[in-house]
Amino acid sequence: MKIILPAFSLLLSFSLLAEHHEKKKPLRALMITGGCCHDYKQQKNIISEGISERVSTEWEIFFEMNETLSKAKLSESGWADEYDYIVYNHCFAHEEDAKFVKSVTDVHKAGKPAIALHCAMHSYHWKIEAKEGKKKAWPAMLGASSRGHGPKAAITVNKVRKFAEHPTMKDMPDGWLTPEGELYNVQEIYPGTKVLAYGDNGKDKKPDTPQACVWINTHGKGRIFSTTLGHHNSTMSTKEYLDMLGNAVKWITSP
Fold first, then answer.
1. What is the CATH number of the domain that holds 234?
2. 103 in Cβ contact with 75 (< 8 Å)
3. pTM, two decimal places
4. What residues pair up with 33 in beta bridges, in sequence order?
5. What is the pLDDT of residues 62-114, one digit of tens each?
6. What is the largest CA-CA distance in the chain?
7. Under 8 Å CB-to-CB from 148, ≥6 apart: which residues?
8. DSSP state of 152
């Protein structure tokens, strides 16, 4: 026997289903920010508000300019357990404690997704020696190693053709010109890392330019999205940049 539901019942079912999706539990995120050389006080708001407009997220923001106090936070047992993903927008390039850094990267190796922005690429490895035949823990997690940068100048962001429609980059126009910029030098891309875009500031004429400026890596079980773009608030505030971060959150947290 066929059961035919009245149109009203079908509409009610669709309405309840839509309401269920609208009330989907927001993600929980922790942002680690602070340190040298950038306007973290404003950037923490630009990033959190921009992502939340695109992906429903409840934030805890740990804003600490002191390297020792920031390290103490990340040394606490279970510091990342209650969050769906972590955002690093910090600059602590002088950390010397390799054991501490490995404890942080092990969190992501176990499966915690992360986004690393700009000076996070220079954090946690400049003053740590690599054991022979081994990669330093922080660059190994990111999937690349960066040290130093070029002059301050707008950056043309060119997508890698074969990854142009990657979920994180699909809304980024090819050849996007940032309002301002500070192009980082990326000395090494590790096997398994996928570079999604290269940056050209029109200033550096060395053979190794343009530089990788957006890439993804899987570290153990954790998905990692990294971009060296974002020195200036003007760049971080653009629709293009925030669309990229919103898409990155969806990608790193997807099943």
1. 3.40.50.880
2. yes
3. 0.90
4. 63, 89
5. 999 999 999 999 999 999 999 999 999 999 999 999 999 999 999 999 999 99
6. 76
7. 184, 185
8. E
